[in-house]
Amino acid sequence: MNVARAKALIEKLASAVEGEVALVDLQAEARAILTTPPMTPNEVMAKARVAAVVKRNAEMEVRHAQVMPTVLKLKGEGRTLREIADALNGMGFVPDRAKRYSHGVIALMLNRYWEKQRAAAE
C-alpha cells in the first residue's frame, strides 16, 4: 500500500467524519489504494537506477558547461584534441568517469556540443 496515499485518505476520512467531505467520494479512492500492488524489489531497483542516471547526467552537464568555454577557446586557437586534453589536465579539470581527459573524451564533448547547437538552430 502506498503510505503517502493512505495517510492522505485518513485525513480525508477525518474530514468526512466532521461532515466536510462525503464518505461516498472516498470509497473509490480507498479501493484504489488497497488494490494497488506494492512495488517489487526489481521495480524499486529500476527506479533507483533511473534516478541515479538522471542525477549523473545533470552533474555531467554542469561540469561540461564549466569546461566547454575553455575547450572551444583552445579549439578556436587551432589546438589538436590531444593538446586540448593535456591543457585541461594541466588546469586541474577532472572528467566525469576517468582520472584524466583524453582526446577521445574531448571529441565526444565537442560532438555533443555541436549536436546541441544544431538542434537549437532548427
Set out the fold topology.
Layout (H helix, E strand, L loop, with lengths): L2 H15 L5 H13 L5 H36 L4 H11 L11 H19 L1
Helix pairs in contact: 1-2, 3-5, 4-5
Task: Write a structural description.
This protein is an all-alpha fold and 122 residues long. The protein folds into 2 domains: 3-35, no CATH class; 41-121, no CATH class. The chain contains 5 helices and no strands. The chain has helices at residues 3-17, 23-35, 41-76, 81-91, 103-121. The protein is elongated, with a radius of gyration of 26 Å. The model has no long low-confidence stretch (mean pLDDT 83).
Question: Which consecutive residue ranges, at least 5 long each, have pLDDT under 50?
Answer: none
Structural class estimated from helices and strands: mainly alpha
Total count of helical runs of at least 4 residues: 5
Summarize model confidence as the mean pLDDT: 83
The profile of the biggest β sheet is: none
According to DSSP, the number of beta strands is 0
Query: What pattern of helices and strands is seen along the backbone?
Result: HHHHH
Distance between the termini: 46 Å
The count of domains is 2
Helix content: over 70%
Strand content: under 5%
Radius of gyration: 26 Å
Shape: elongated
What tags apply to this protein structure?
122 residues, mainly alpha, single chain, 5 helices
